[in-house]
Amino acid sequence: MKNFLKTVLIFIITAVFLSACGKNPEIEKPSNIKVIKDCVYQSGGLYGVIHGDELVTEAVYETYKQAKIGDFIIYVFGRTDGTKPMIEYDEEGKPSEITETKRVLYDFYFSDGTRFIEITADDYEYYGSFFNVSRDGNIYEYSISAEGEVKEEYVFTAGTERLENGYSIVSYYYGASRLSIGAGVLDSDGNEIIPKVYTTVGIYFGDRIVAQKMDGFGLSEIGKIYDLEGNVICEKYNRVEFFEFDNDEWLGVAVSAGPMSQVATVFYDEYGNEIPKGIRFINKDGKEVSPIFESGIDFGKPYYSADSVITVTDSDGNSFDLKIGDYTFFGGKTSDFSDEMELVTNVAYRQNGKYGFHNGGVPVTEAIYDEIVPIHKVEDDEVYVNTYEVAKKDMADLFVGIYTDGTRETIDFSNWQSIKTIKKTNTLYSIYQAGSDSLINDIPFMNFNLNAPNSWGNSLHVVLLSGTNGGDRYDYIPTENGWKLYQMQSGGVYNAYSEKCYFTKYYWSPSALRYGLIKPDDSVILEPVYHKIDMVPHMFILAYDGYSSQTMDDVNCTYMYDFDGNLICAYDYIKYEFVQSGRFVILAMDTDDNGDTHWWFIDETGKKLSESYNLITINYDEDSKGNLNKKTATVYADTELFNPDAKTEEIPIKDYVIYVK
Which of 281, 304, 305 is CA-nearest to residue 376? Predict the structure, then answer.
């Protein structure tokens, strides 16, 4: 009994002693405390921090985990509290806007329960002896010595950088990684022009914003060009850089990782084609002004200048030299220029903000051009330029001047094989060969391209489209004495086919010859947008939309018009065949959703005169005098048109004959 009472007494004294040692006057010790490990205890399903027997924090944390920093174990406690901003991505993986997400606050302790750092963070990361935490858009970087001394090494501060033009670059760190930064732009009134979703943002030339998004490996995923109103000027490259030189000259570079890369973002051009892999030089609107090459640009070399010559490699592994000055631009910034002529390249001078051509300081043209660039490096909706290996030397001396003057009609080239919409343009071009005393052609033109080597030998065939002579085409070839006119192919009016109309032809581009019809009084029946036009005089016109319209396979659609230009009908393909003098039949074809073809006899109003056949062919029949007449038709009723066992039938065509009026 004595021993029992002695044991109870010792237990009570011990309990009171321990209770006194662990008491924290600020924290009421719960009765169901459970020490998990080191400084971690649990109570009521939550976690807290304990130092020896003293409670350091209440049990308010929902999670805890260990982190090893140097030789030390750090405990990371987390609890949810409110929301924090995050970058929202669209379906293509591109950053779009800022939204709110659940916020987790983190506190950090050594294994003995002492505080590691005083900041409560909303994100953290650690590696080696370094520990990064973020809070309120800033990142704090800490190191820990072998003795356990914690030192704040650096603070990456988010905030606002106000520029001379009144605009501001704003930034915010959404996590503890330096790549978690989101940068955007505010205008002079504080309105958000670009949301804080990009890794870097820069303003160039006073009117262009370049926004880049990097991936977790520091590789560029997105490089966009905006104007100062926040409108996207260019969105088709993974990286865009502008290098500005001391003499107001600058170089634009863009990189596409290509469709087969592991980069998350793949870009497409306006026609839905994936942007080819490689490096190219660009102007400030993102338009390519050079061939595409695989390597040769080192973005870590700020000493590039217009005088630099670099060696680049194309996609086939061929190396060649490029002079930076052939791809640089002058100006681009908002500033006032003097009235005096300023030589800016060996071929271009600047005066009152415009450019002109010069030869050794002597003006060749007036300063009327908005841009002067090497000819084979121009790309625009209305300028199609093909660059070939042989062009690299010959084209180095050719430059195009681009300017605006008046309003002219041109054609929409968005779908090469289809009828084009007539639209208005005011862009004109001039071509100049360095060292010459005059332009290659004194007449300004609306379009041009370069053709591959041809029958004149290993040379380039330059084609010009006149902007004043109604769609004429001028063909030039290189000679020892410069580029010379080889031939001129006229557009205009030809073939007075009938009293009702005349054919017209027009070179919208050197390779886009199109046909139309006008009345004798020059009023338009059909605009010159068709690949081919045929007609039965006094009855109807057939206008073909297609690549060449020489065969049915080349035609997208055939339109039947009357001689006032009113549409009568349209089928995939329409043709007529004379069966006797003054008599003919009209055949029409359509393709259904399954790809099967259906042919009919139709009349001059487009009305179907027969049942549907898979194919109709008109048969020749030689009479006693040797004249060939077409009096019957073979019709195919089997979808296997070229099957020797296909079901065919020969039918008379007298019920389908149309008489010329």
Answer: 281
